[in-house]
Structures are given as structure tokens and as C-alpha cells.
Amino acid sequence: MSDALRARSASIWVAGAWLHRAFQSPAVRVPVMALLMAAIFISDTLTDLEIATAVFYIAVILLAVGRVPSRYVVGLAAICLLLTLVSFVLTKSGSREAGVVNLSISLSTICITTYLALKMVAAEGAAHEARAQLIRVARVTSLGELAASIAHEVNQPLAAIASSGDTARRWLCAEPPGVGRARDAIDRVIADANRASTIIARVREHARSAPAQRGEIRIDTVIEEAVAWSQAELERQGITLDLAMADQLPVVLGDRIQLQQVLCNLILNAIEAMATVSSRRRSLAIAAMSDVSGDIVISVSDTGPGIREEHMPHLFDAFWTTKEGGTGIGLTIIRTIVEAHGGAIWVDRMKPYGARFHVRLPASGIDAE
Ligand code: ADP
Q1: Coil, helix or strand for 53?
Q2: Could you tell me the pTM of the whole model?
Q3: What is the mean pLDDT of the chain?
Q4: Does the CB atom of residue 326 touch ligand 1 within 6 A?
Q5: Which runs of E-coded beta strand occur in the chain?
Q6: Cα–Cα dist 129/215, whole Å
Q7: Which pLDDT score is estimated for 136?
Q8: pLDDT (tens digit, 9 = 90+) per residue, 15-36?
Q9: What distance in Å separates the CA atoms of residue 214 and residue 195, rounded to the nearest whole number?
């Protein structure tokens, strides 16, 4: 690609991204759409009946779909249909027969486009719900696996404790009591209890230090994949996204799926935190950069209600949740994964509102290509 072409594509991309971002705000969206509708109405009324200018109303519908609630889209489509009919009545020039054909084409195009676009948005919503569900299932599965392995390992010493306890009781109840034998049985209870506790510590250690696959990971790609996963939901909830990634981020040695899980969970939590916000901008900011030691620091910030001071010490505790129906293990799993990668996670309370989670991951020392 020539430099001129590359520069032009870059500027088109930047303009597209700017328009996309600007369009998230109702203050930009509403006047732009009203202007567009007025322009279509005027040109449809002024041009001959042979020209089906009204089909351009579908542009207005497509701009609205996914950005405003479905009932408003239906209302907008009804206004477009009405304007098309008014233009038809007001237009004096051109063949009436051709005008009727064009009118029916325009009306049916607007109806069909609205119907299909709304169906598409509903399907996207369902897909997002399924993906969010998948993340929740992954949380529960990780927990289930951990619970199953603890249960499996600990079952045997527990059975031995019960049996030795029973033996000790029998010796103590015997006539005369077999105190020496009872003491031996109680010693076995203590030894088995210690064994169970060692096993639990070992399983926890194993869970902490078991990154499934180690590979060279480009963190910007992991972030982009996680963002793509949540894009539809961000748009649906009117959340603007600020993505700031430093050039030439160092490569991380780790498990791509697990790191994706970290990002997806943090984004999901941010989206859920902002669901109750209606009086200010809902905004998600993700940044990735190297710190002074060369490690990568990723931050995920939101404009949700933030975290109460008294909640801070519990945030990463297993099963600690403030959400109805929450599992309280998302952040626990995230911390386990991050620590297994030799990293750290912490959170800042933002002023006047919002939360910012930071994940630090050690750089592998391998240069990014
Ligand atoms: P869950 O999402 O099931 O509650 P998590 O472990 O992911 O489990 O989160 C634990 C708690 O941490 C949440 O219930 C919530 O109170 C708090 N939390 C997590 N992320 C955020 C956030 N971005 N803003 C405010 N609170 C948060």
C-alpha cells in the first residue's frame, strides 16, 4: 500500500471512529438524524414522482437501530412512512402511476428494513446474553473443578478421622476403658486432620499456580478480542469506549484464554456497575502501557457508582457479592489467574465516582514483532 493510500485509509478510519463515538451521544445523534430526515423530505417533495428518494429514510432507521430502544425505532419508522406519504401528496411533477409504484417500494422498503434491523438487534442481544452466560458458567466451572478436587482429596482423611473417632469412643466406653488405645486413635485423628489441611493447602497452591497453556501473548490482541466480545452490549447500553494502548507493548508469557477471561470479567463487571447509571455519561476506558520496570499495566475504568470504602477489603474474597444473583467469584478467579501469571491486581476508587481496576503482568523479555 502506498503512503498516500495508507494515510487516506487511516484518516477515513479516524473519521469513522470519531463519527461512531460522536453518534453515541444523543446531543449529536438527534439533530443529525432530524437534519437527515428533513433533507430527505425536502428532496423527495421537490424531485419528480419517478425518483424514489424516500428509500433513503432507511439510512435514518439504520442509524437509530441498536442505539435507541426498539420502540423509538418503530416510532421513527412510522414518522418516515408518514413523511413519505406527505411528500407523495405534495409532489406535483412527474407521472402519477410511477409515483404510486415508487411510493409502495419506499413504504415496503422502510417497513422491511425496520423489521429486519430490529430482528438483528434482538439476535445480537441474545448472543450477548449467551456470551455473558458463558463467562458466568466458566466462573462456576472453575469453582466446581476446585471444589471437586478438594472433595476428592479430602474425602479419604475425613473417612479415616470418622473411623478413628469411633474407635476412640468405643475404647473409652469399654469396661475398663482402654485409655492407651483411645489415645492412639485420637493421635490418628489429629494426624489425619493435619493431612486434610495439608491437602487443602496443596490444592489451593495448585489452583494458584496452574496456568493452562504458556505462550507468547500480545496483550493488545487479547484486549481487542475482549472488546469485540462486548461491543454489542456496550452499544446497547449506550456506553462509550475509550481505548488507549501504547505502541510496541511488550509480549507476555501466558495463557491467552485465561487472560481473555480476566479482561472479559472486568468489562462485564464494569457494564453491570454502570447499568444503574442514568444521570451521567456511561463510559468504559481501557488502557494498556508499560510501567518503569517494563511490565504491562492494563487498567479498566468505569463511571459506575464505584466501590464503598468498607467494601474494599472484601472485593477479592470468594463468594463476596453485592449483586442480586451474583456469584462473588469473578474477581477471585481473576486474581488467581493474574497471580498465576506472576502479576498483581488492585483497584482504585475514582473521584467523584467510578472504579478503576489495574492488572500488572510481567513482560516476557521477548520483543513484539
Ligand atoms: P459478582 O460480579 O458475581 O458479584 P465479582 O467477584 O466479579 O462477583 O465481584 C464482587 C463484587 O465486587 C461485586 O458484587 C461488586 O460489589 C464489586 N465490583 C466488582 N467490579 C465492580 C465495579 N466495576 N464497580 C463497582 N463494584 C464492583
Answers
A1: helix
A2: 0.59
A3: 84
A4: yes
A5: 215-217, 239-245, 252-254, 282-290, 296-302, 344-349, 355-361
A6: 30
A7: 65
A8: 655 666 666 677 788 888 899 9
A9: 32
Residue among 331, 334, 336 whose CB has most ligand 1 atoms within 8 A, to mutate: 331
d(CA 271, CA 320): 19
The Cβ-side half-sphere exposure at 267, using a 13 Å CA radius, reads: 33
- What are the phi and psi torsion angles at 262 (to 5°)? -60, -50
270 lines ligand 1 (CB under 6 A): yes
Q: Does ligand 1 have an atom closer than 6 angstroms to the CB of 266? A: no
Ligand 1 binding pocket includes 11 (Cβ within 6 Å) = no
Which of 261, 271, 300 lies closest to 136, judged by CA? 261
The C-alpha cell at 283 is 463510559
Residue range 99-145, pLDDT digits in tens: 899 999 999 999 998 998 888 888 777 777 777 767 766 666 666 66
Q: How far apart are CA 183 and CA 359, in angstroms?
A: 52
Cα→Cα distances 300→118, 229, 262, 307, Å: 31, 15, 11, 14
CATH code: domain 214-369 is 3.30.565.10
3-state secondary structure of 354: coil
3-state helix, strand, coil in the chain (%, to 5): 65, 10, 25
Residue whose C-alpha cell is 460522536: 22
Provide DSSP, 156-200: HHHHHHHHHHHHHHHHHHSSS--HHHHHHHHHHHHHHHHHHHHHH
SS3 359: strand
d(CA 179, CA 177): 6
Chain position carrying cell 456469584: 327
CB 57 within 8 A of CB 40: yes
Residue nearest to atom 7 of ligand 1 (CA): 330
In the chain, what are the domain boundaries?
A: 3-137, 214-369
Provide the residue type at 277 as one letter: V
The phi, psi pair for 240, rounded to 5°, reads -85, 145
